[in-house]
Amino acid sequence: MARGANLTRLGGFNQTVLFDAIRRSHDGISRVELVTVTGLTAQTVSNIVRRLLDEGLVVEGDRVQTSARGKPRTLVQVQPSARHAIGVHIDPATLTFVLIDVAGQVRHYARQSTPRAQPPEGVVTVIADQVERMLEASGVDRSTVLGLGVAAPGPLDVLEGLLLRPPQLVGWERVRLRAELHARSGLHVLVDKDVTAAATGEQWARDGARRNFVFCYLGSGVGAGVVMNDEVLRGATNNIGEIGNILVDGDAADLGIARRGSLAAACLPQALVIQAQRRGVTTSTVSSDDFVGVDEVITDLCHRAYGGDPDCLRLIDDAAVGLAAGLAVLVNLLDLDRVVLGGPLWSRISSRMLEVLPALIRPQLVVASRDLTVEGSAAGEHVAAQGAAALVLDHFLSPRPSVLVME
Amino acid sequence: MARGANLTRLGGFNQTVLFDAIRRSHDGISRVELVTVTGLTAQTVSNIVRRLLDEGLVVEGDRVQTSARGKPRTLVQVQPSARHAIGVHIDPATLTFVLIDVAGQVRHYARQSTPRAQPPEGVVTVIADQVERMLEASGVDRSTVLGLGVAAPGPLDVLEGLLLRPPQLVGWERVRLRAELHARSGLHVLVDKDVTAAATGEQWARDGARRNFVFCYLGSGVGAGVVMNDEVLRGATNNIGEIGNILVDGDAADLGIARRGSLAAACLPQALVIQAQRRGVTTSTVSSDDFVGVDEVITDLCHRAYGGDPDCLRLIDDAAVGLAAGLAVLVNLLDLDRVVLGGPLWSRISSRMLEVLPALIRPQLVVASRDLTVEGSAAGEHVAAQGAAALVLDHFLSPRPSVLVME
Fold it and tell me: How would you list the strands of the sheet with A29-30, edge to edge?
């Protein structure tokens, strides 16, 4: 049921709008420009900027001559150290940590293998300890940290902050991630799906002009985050993006992992390794559930591919055919004009993939006139951790017209 | 870039909120209840209801005793005849017309075969003439008609009101549907994709509790409309929902229509007829591009299926297997908890399909704990035409928090 407008929220909303506009202008923005871009009156802009200055969220920078006539204008810039957020990405192979400032810049970064022998409680302790170490090492004032965002594999219960039973994390079932991390760190904790965090990270890493895109994450699993009309979509239970089972090749052989002929069977790291083993391209006998061992074989295969080994290149090209078929399903269904790819596997194979993917996808598009952009993540390999941190900044700082309506 | 709040829009927004609340309460709602459901003050509710009464949009109805103590309350009801909208659905086989009142009820209905021999201009004339006849026959005051909504097959340019080159409408290319129909009818015209209109129609036909669903349209084509978080999604170019090419059966035979093994090849009417011909279940030699002839064979096959003919039932069951595989792709990708099916083909095969579909879809869902509802359209066979009309009501009458932000 629709709700009436909430007058009491106007001031707070306009403050988030102005702060957002200042934050997005990397080199600063004048009050006159703020009036133009936000549509607010000069008086309102002046009052709110004064408040933001008082709260230390923004600073006044250079005076610049913006036109031939008229007096120079003082630029207002975000104070990057005014607020921070921490992001953690829990991948079956790797834990990635970032601390970002309110300008979205990574101030601190850490990475370690996900402890495999430990029960979930042990992993939670490892995460809490690393967060603590990162806070100390960075020298950031704890009171400026808005919270801790956690990107985790699905399925999960976002509202309760529970990991339900992620297929790749053996023995994890209904792990109370939010409550445990909050108890140990004292921080406000948000838990979200890895692909949703990655899509959010990508939105933050590149401003504007990315209103409709799918973020395809290639790591130990394959998943999709979807941004439509500038909104990160979440689905009925916040578990959007399960694309691994999409059938992409009816004639594929059974690899013994994932569904025969599926997107996952075409482009998971394990799938590449099994293909390499079957074709005699690697002598490694690593098992497909040894994430670290698989990772090492992938490193070797990519190294040889870029050295010109045709068999290794063929492995990547074959994966590209399957990936293109899966991406075409998403683009046709959702009418997207941009595909962004990222994740640990992507960062190894991206240069070859970007050569071949667009020409493989385009003939499969139903709306043939569409301009489709295919590109790698602007946020880089740590996009999910950065996105987890961005979820926290978004939660506290982004303007939402919905707050103008009564709760 | 975010924009500031627009104070001048508050009054208009609150009026749409109240009218929406009254419209959705089928039997009327008291001012006291309106305060509760909208969060507005009693004074604001009273003022706006007075304005709506003056404009003839609502009427006062019965006085009812809503609690043991306290005086009886006067119910406010929408005046159904205060506003109307017309909807047209252009299907390759059939043109469907509805005139609905502001309560969403169908007041007038018409249907005719899509003229096949005529160029697009001839079809536009047929539509304009039928709209005119319907307006006269219904006796509706023309000044109460908010506009004409057109649901058309994609791809289309919604902003310009152009049909680009729908594959099933031979010879149609860049048809200026909105401009032509506006010139002939004098009405405000909105053009949108058939599946988007159908999803909108379904939203209107059932209030509430349908926040995330896919509407799968089965007619001369197969397509999907998506509703997420109560919003009808549209995609980058308003051409969302192309699902016909999704691979659902790697082992399928080539039918000579659609992509081998695709969702379209599994459940289009032409596909059912070709399968029937190949299996000797029908003696008809109708060509698959004869929409009317195909339709007659489908009618015969369904009649025999419901009479107990196992070969005819098997045709529907096989289509259900393909359809289930396609729907599982959508549910897994978008994390939906509801699948709604409709369209002319669906209405013939629904009773058998509803028996078998849920059990075919569920084992394919990745988030296994999800409660998935599979059901037929509440809006019925004419859902796309009703949705086209509902697009007009939505456009003029639905509250949107985004209007509270400066343009």
Answer: A29-30, A73-78, A58-64
| ipTM, two decimals | 0.91
- Cβ of residue A329 closer than 8 Å to a chain B Cβ: yes
pTM: 0.91
B144: which DSSP letter?
Answer: G
Tokens of residue A273, six digits: 């390794």
β-strand pairing of A29-30 with A73-78: antiparallel
Q: Are A188 and A179 in contact (CB under 8 A)?
A: no
**CA B193 to CA B38: how far, in whole Å?**
32
Q: Which residues contact residue A388 at a Cβ distance below 8 angstroms, ignoring those fewer than 6 apart?
A: A87, A88, A89, A98, A149, A150, A151, A190, A192, A197, A201
Both tokens of residue B195? 């599946």
Q: How far is B239 from chain A (nearest CA, A)?
A: 6
User: Is B144:B83 a contact under the CB 8 Å cutoff?
Assistant: yes
d(CA A39, CA B301) in angstroms, rounded, equals 62
With contact defined as beta carbons under 8 Å apart, do A315 and A275 qualify? yes
CA-based nearest distance B33→chain A, Å: 12
Which one, of A198, A229, A183, A184, lies nearest residue A342 by Cα? Answer: A198
Nearest to A4 among B4, B40, B212 (CB): B40
Span of A16-20, A94-98, B326-330, B388-392 with lowest mean pLDDT = A16-20
Q: Which residues pair with B163 in a beta bridge?
A: B156, B175
Between chains, do A4 and B38 touch, taking CB under 8 Å as contact? yes
Q: Is pLDDT at A287 greater than 80 in this prediction?
A: yes
Residues 6 or more apart in contact with residue B153 via CB below 8 angstroms: B90, B91, B92, B163, B166, B167, B168, B169, B193, B194, B221
Which residues lie across from B74 on neighbouring strands? Answer: B63
C-alpha R_g of chain A: 23
Q: How far apart are CA B407 and CA B9, in angstroms?
A: 11
Given a cut of 70, is residue A261 above it in pLDDT? yes
What is the number of H-type helices and E-type strands within chain A?
12, 16
The closest CB to that of A250, out of B37, B155, B261, belongs to B261
What's residue B198's pLDDT? 94
Question: Sign of the C-alpha dihedral, residues A157, B228, A340, A270?
Answer: positive
**B277-283 contact pairs (CB < 8 A, 24+):** B279/B311, B279/B315, B281/B311, B281/B312, B281/B315
Q: Across the interface, do A236 and B407 touch by the CB < 8 Å criterion?
A: no
What pLDDT is recorded for position A170?
Answer: 77
Q: In what order do the strands lie in the sheet with B231-232?
A: B231-232, B222-228, B213-218, B338-342, B373-376
% of chain A residues with pLDDT over 90: 66
The CA radius of gyration of chain B, in Å to the nearest whole number, is 23
CA-to-CA distance for A116 and A114, rounded, in angstroms?
Answer: 6
Residues A392, A149: Cα–Cα separation, whole Å: 6
| Chains A–B, number of C-beta pairs less than 8 Å apart | 208
Q: What is the DSSP string of A289-311?
A: T-HHHHHHHHHHHHHHHHTT-HH
Tokens of B119: 């160029």
Please say if the pLDDT value at position B369 is more than 60: no
What the block records as the tokens of A270 is 């394990």
What is the C-alpha to C-alpha distance for residues A14 and A20, in angstroms, rounded to an integer? 10
Output the pLDDT for position A211.
81
Report pLDDT for B1: 61
Smallest Cα distance from B241 to chain A, Å: 5
Q: Which residue of A has its CA nearest to B9?
A: A5
Give the phi and the psi of residue B99 in degrees, each rounded to 5. -120, 120
Q: In chain B, what residues touch A337 (CB-CB under 8 Å)?
A: 236-237
Q: Answer whether A363 touches B (CB < 8 Å).
A: no
Residue of A nearest to B237 (CA): A335
